[in-house]
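G., before I forget:
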Amino acid sequence: MNYIVLDLEWNQSGTPEGNNEKIPFEIIEIGAVKLNEDKVMIDEFSALIKPRIYKTMHYVTGKLVHIKMQELKHEQPFEDVIGRFKEWCGNDVIYCTWGPLDLTELQRNMKYYGIDTFSDGPFAFYDVQKLFAIDSGNRADRVSLETAVDRLGIHKDIPFHRAFSDAYYTAKVFGVLKGEEIMDYVSYDTFTPPRDKEHEVHRIFKDYDKYITRTFTTRENLLADREVKSTNCYLCDKISAKEVKLFAPTGKYYIGVSYCENHGYIKTKIRIRKSDDGGIYAVKTQRQITREDAESILERSNKVKETKPKGRITKKS
Ligand SMILES: [Zn+2]
């Protein structure tokens, strides 16, 4: 087994009208480092890609990445580069990225060109940005790659913000994170969500539980599913008292709190996601929380209820 630490640079439309919904981020560079099981670098990959969707460089991309359109004109098209890349990766690999986005956008580009994506369902990968945050003791503290490199005192021998260099530094950070405990925190890429109940993902981590549901046709169907909406304790599956009924602080997720006699307060969070082909699925997480946390969630729930629009009279007199 090898690790493939990869990073992408992509370009996008400068205007809403110019945006192609099927491929909002066109990949223009792939950089990667191959590590063996001991996280030692054994090979590298770097390629620029000739763009076909967005022919002008978005000002942010241009400023950050320092690639000019002119330079890309004579490069190979995406299909050729991704073909070489997949061959270079080999079969028995685990992908690693900085942040959760790269594998999803890479597969969106693959699908656009009719190329087989990495898997026909969710697959585990390492989000090194998340691992670094957990290792630093604050999982919500997602820092930039350069900040992580500075904090770890890693020597900065090449400039940042090109695909290869960012993959290289991500690999360096990944190499420092040792210990079985941190390596337990895999992420799941869900560009292709579970196709049926049998392929759903259930995983209990040290301090939380993750459940990735199959796709449903509508949000209503999803939220009507018994397993999806259950707030019972994930540790003992006991019927738990609902302290805060599921509510939606935004349109994207639901939160609730229940109380288990054995395990105390349990927070349930259900994130609603849309798959690339329009299906609705959820990523549900449950974790033990303190009484104070439970109280602050109750407060949020009460606020949401207050701001809900009141019923309106629609009949005209
Ligand atoms: Zn329990």
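Residues 233, 235-236, 238, 260, 262-263 surround zinc ion (CB under 6 Å). The radius of gyration is 22 Å.

More on Monday.
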